[in-house]
Amino acid sequence: MLESAELHFNVDHGYLEGLVRGLKASLLTQQDYVNLVQCETLEDLKIHLQTTDYGNFLANETNPLTVSKIDTEMRKKLCKEFDYFRNHSLEPLSTFLTYMTCSYMIDNVILLMNGALQKKSVKEILAKCHPLGSFTEMEAVNIAETISDLFNAVLVETPLAPFFQDCMSENTLDELNVELLRNKLYKSYLESFYKFCKNHGDVTAEVMCPILEFEADRRAFIITLNSFGTELSKEDRETLYPTCGRLYPEGLRLLTQAEDFDQMKTVADHYGVYKPVFETVGGHGGKTLEDVFYEHEVQMNVLAFNRQFHYGVFYAYVKLKEQEMRNIVWIAECISQRHRTKINSYIPIL
Amino acid sequence: METPFGAGLANILVVLPARLAVIGQPERRRLLSLSVTEKRLWLAMAGQDLRKELDSLLLQLLRDLEELEAKRVALNTRVEEGWLLLAKARYVMGTKSVGPLQYPSCMEPRVFVRASENQDTMQTFRLVRADAQTPEEVEPREAALRRRKGPNKSPEPELSAAPQDPLNWFGILVSHSLRQAQASFQDALQLAADIASLQIHIDWCQNQSQGLREKLRQLDSGAA
């Protein structure tokens, strides 16, 4: 089927693929990061970023410059680029791009619900929502009392509607239930996205399916790690694991029984891909499991650009850009806290 | 001819009343019955006692200062570590997921500082958790009386539910960096209470040593 991809892809999506490859080439290089690390203040950081593709994105910011403002402006810039892709895309790329925004929508819904629990004003929360995941019904999220309310009244018209299948219940929304809702929604979303890519077939499936399998397994590991010492029961934990990864079904069953990090590591050792990943945890520099997973993700996303005529480049670009934003925010935090020992813990991309 | 003892005697007669003012009745009667030489010896020994006390006080002061320095360094390290771990938590969980949106604008404290005075009128500070068992000041009889008075007595704040763990503001499944940050800040809190107590003890030691030096000066100017 390779011939059909090469023949027809550029008709509908060639322009956008060219654009995204150009944007990927303008990601920060190792030299840029070295310059950023040497900054003494956030103003210096702003000046150095002006020489990169970021340009004057902080020009309208009032003093004093904070890390939160830098993060918000970077997000807005990414959102502008992504909206340009979405506005110029045709099916099935449009559906693919919509799938990409769903994860941000889920985060925004949870942010709004937690904000309602803490009695924050909707305006305050809306200002901090991720722009990639904005949808028109966002302001109404905080009035819902139970999950069925939330679905029937607010989210039934949004792309998130099909993911509510397993989450419907009449329980009131307290912290535990909000956390369970977040993870169940994400599990449905990931499995649905995986099915879409697989059904599309072609190079897209070859590139996207391993990436999404890793994402599912990563979530399973991180949920397990974070649930040690909390009130989340093992049965509840099992319902949160996405099933579209390599760990399904044996690995997930073993993970449900794990009670500490070493037992988790034993489960990972059964899988050739994850054994070396877990080996590098700890080590020199005190890398956490999350750090190691981010590095692995960056590797996979960079490799996605080696194939042509598939939608994975869009997904990979957005994820790499997010990692770059995390790197810049980390360097900015180390500079503003004047604590430079761990400033080199960013993950270089190019 | 001026005898060496003559001058000494005159001084003793000046110094003794000052010394007598600070000692009790039985001692006074005993002193007045001593000879001049014996009186001079007594003054020298009193001076030596004072000097020994001053020495031990100064040593205690220096020890406390060293401990204070060490505790200050530890406090700085823990607080810096806590902030960096918060930044790490933001890196993993998302910048807007660990911030002012998550905590309520009016919080209930989980830890209280209790100041108590000991016999030297020196204050010490202790940290008391909000969900600790019945406070020591309430006697069992009083508690029984409260219960007998019935529901129209205003509810005591200590018996209400303990405030929730602030870690849950950020969700149930939070990153380990956030938990470690909480532990760092809790240690820093304990260190802060210790430093406050230590500072008060140092001030007290300084005042005591000041007083002792005054007395010694009077004694020396009298004996010279």
Blueprint of the fold:
The complex is a heterodimer of chains A (350) and B (224).
Chain A: H1 2-25, H2 30-37, H3 42-50, H4 67-87, H5 93-117, H6 122-128, H7 147-154, H8 175-200, H9 202-227, H10 234-240, H11 250-257, H12 261-268, H13 274-279, H14 289-304, H15 312-337
Chain B: H1 4-22, H2 25-32, H3 36-93, E1 111-117, E2 123-129, H4 140-149, H5 176-223
Antiparallel strand pairs in B: 1-2
Q: How large a portion of the residues of chain B is in β-strands, by DSSP E?
A: 5-15%
Main sheet of chain B, how many strands, which sense, barrel?
Answer: 2 strands, antiparallel
Helix share, percent of chain B: 55-70%
Q: Any low-confidence stretches of chain A, pLDDT <50, length ≥5?
A: none
Most strands sheet of chain A: none
- Structural class call of chain A reads mainly alpha
Number of helices of chain A: 15
**Radius of gyration of chain B, in angstroms, nearest whole number:** 29 Å
Instruction: Please tally the β strands of chain B and state the result.
Output: 2
Order of H and E elements of chain A? HHHHHHHHHHHHHHH
The counted number of beta strands of chain A is 0
Distance between the termini of chain B: 20 Å
Q: What separation lies between the terminal Cα atoms of chain A?
A: 31 Å
Strand and helix order of chain B: HHHEEHH
Chains forming the largest contact: A-B, 40 and 28 residues
The multimeric state of the shown protein is: heterodimer
Which spans of chain B of ≥5 residues are poorly predicted at pLDDT below 50? 1-7, 134-160
